[in-house]
Each structure stands twice: as C-alpha cells, then as structure tokens.
Amino acid sequence: WRVTSIHLGQRRTERLMLAAAVAVLGLQAPLPVSRVAQSRLGGVRMASDEPWFEDCVSTTSIDKSAFEAAYATAMNAPAPAASTSGKQDFLEASPFWDQSNIPINTYKNKAPFTGKIISVKRIVGAAATGETCDIVMSHGGKMPYWEGQSYGVIPPGTNPKNGKPNSVRLYSIASSRYGDDMTGTTTTLCVRRATYWCPELKADDPAKKGVCSNFLCDSKPGDEVKLTGPSGKVMLIPEQDATADLIMVATGTGIAPYRSFIRRLFVEKTPYGEVYKGLAWLFLGVANKDALLYDDEWQSVLKSYPKNFRVDYALSREQTNKDGGKMYIQDKVAEYSDEIFTRMDNGAHMYFCGLKGMMPGITEMLEGVSKAKGIVWEDKLKEWKSKGQWHVEVY
What we know:
- This protein has helices at residues 12-25, 33-38, 64-75, 211-218, 256-267, 271-275, 295-304, 329-334, 337-345, 359-372, 377-386, and strands spanning 2-7, 43-46, 59-61, 113-122, 132-138, 150-154, 169-172, 186-192, 197-198, 203-204, 224-231, 246-251, 280-286, 309-315, 349-354, 390-394.
- By secondary structure, the chain is of the alpha/beta class.
C-alpha cells in the first residue's frame, strides 16, 4: 500500500489508536500535530485519491500486513485514562457544548463492534407488568457516544422468515458518555423483555418473543454482543444554553435517554452540570410502583437539587385522572399544561421517548392551551420545532 495524507479523526480515542499505529510503523506524520488534532476527517487516504490539501501531501510506501498488525495493536491498547482531577472532562468537546463533532455511526451493520456484557440486573419489582433489565456492556473506549444517542444491537441467529441474519434493533443509551463506572469504556441499556401472551395457550408463546430483548435480558457477563452506532441527533441536550428548561416525557424504557441527561446534569462532575441553572422536569408513565425505573436515583437527585429537578409519575393501574379514568402519561402532563406552555414559550426544550400513543393526548392538551391564549397551535408548534425545542423519539 502507498498511504497519502494520514489524517487523524476528531475523537480522542480514534486519534490515540491511529497515532499508535503510525508510531509502531515509524511513519512521518504529513501534518504538524496541531493541524492533525484539528482535522475533522479520519482514516487513511489511498494514493489514487485526490488529497484534501495540495500543499500538505506526504507519501510513504508501507507493507499492508505491517499496517494491519500495527492497527490491531493500537485497537487493543488500553482505553484513555480517566481524569484524576475528580471532574468528568476527558470526553468533552471544546467548548463542551459544541455538537459539530459528535460520534455518528462509527460502526455499521456490515462491520459491527463486538462488545462484552458486564452485568444484567432486573430493576423492577415482582408486581411489575413484565421484566425490565439494566444491562451494562463494555466498549473498551472504542465506541464513544453522547447523551441522547442510541446503540444498535444485532442479536445472534437468523430470521426464520427469510433465513437471513437477524437485523439490528435500536436502544436508547441510559448512561452518560462516561458510563456508570465513569471510565468512558462502558454503556448502559434499559431493556424490557418483549413477550407475547397467547390466549389459547394461556401462557407466553416462545415462538413470538422479542428476539433481541430476550437475548439481552438472558445474556451473562462475558457474553459478546454486536453493536452498531452510535446514532441519532434528535435527542441531544442544548448545552450551549445552561438556563434552558428540559421537560422530559417518557413511558417505560423511554426513560433511558433522560437517565443519561440527569446523570450528566446532577450526578457527575461535568462542565455542563457545573453551570446548569434551568429546571430538569421528568414525567414517567408506568403501570404501578413496582414498574418504576431508577426511582432511587431520581429521589436522590431531587433531595440534592430541589430547585433544579422535578419528577412526576403517572401510574395507570394505581392512579386516576381528573375524569376518574386511568392515569396515563398524557393525563399527568395535562395537569401542568399552562406551566409547560409558558416554559416552552420561554425557551424550554420538550422531549418525548417511549410509546407513540402518548403523543395525541399531549398535543391536544397543548393545542387547547394555545387556543385559550388566542394562538394558532399549528403555528406555535412550527415555531418550537424551528427553534429546535421539540424532540420526539417514539415507537
């Protein structure tokens, strides 16, 4: 191979790995270090390609097998060490709110990353409707992500309908970019085991169970898992405005991205958390108290940051709405309709994650407030969307 213009990627982990490969081979970097560090382009350019900059081309002939061996050595190198200052700052952009270089689709379906399961823990009580697990996996620092993004999981096996390998399933990430262990090498997913109750069998039908969710919930520490991503920009936090309220609405495992938000804001010592002055307001809808997810974490944050954090639950099988019916998430949000509308008009960001069935009730509620104020709802919603205040990721 003849390599022309080795440009190192913008992410710290990629830079370290590729730099290690270059160092092992004893190559001369074609650009000064400062310019390499600033480059937004990653990878290796072949000699047949046009260089990005005609005045900074360096051509070196290397052996293909030597390069692959050196790259493998770099990929297996230890992940970047965590900060010793007590702050979580080694995975931050500069400035921390700059979203121009967030990791996107580092690994794709045809070439996924192989991670390993660290732990699987049931996080709901005995009376919960179904089983939900907190699943921690290792990516070794080689698959960084930001809060609000998703990982794809490719379960093993083939689809019996077409004989092809199982397709990827997306899961919102439930940990901050530093992971629950704050090393920057792990990821947490919140997964509900998908089952199908057969009225004829009067039992769960194993032939119709969710392939990926059951694979993850049944996995054991050390098991390998094929990952793609990270993907998504819809649910990112507007960190440039440290005064913006964050109104987070979730059903069930839709809580995942908000856990990453709240950890970044209130649990970890991050640059964003240090300057945040807004209100993070969480709404979670589940069936009953046993189905609440991460409640101990929310209560701890509420105790420590009562002026900056609020949480409201909608327990459909234990609470009733104003009309005497079951309390669903849209009913709970409607109790604060005027306040939410005002906060949105003042620049708040509203997020929705979980079942799409919650959306009609919430939009109808806000439309009613809009009408009462003499405002055309369609125009108001268009305004919020144009300002990036409306974030929806439902299924």
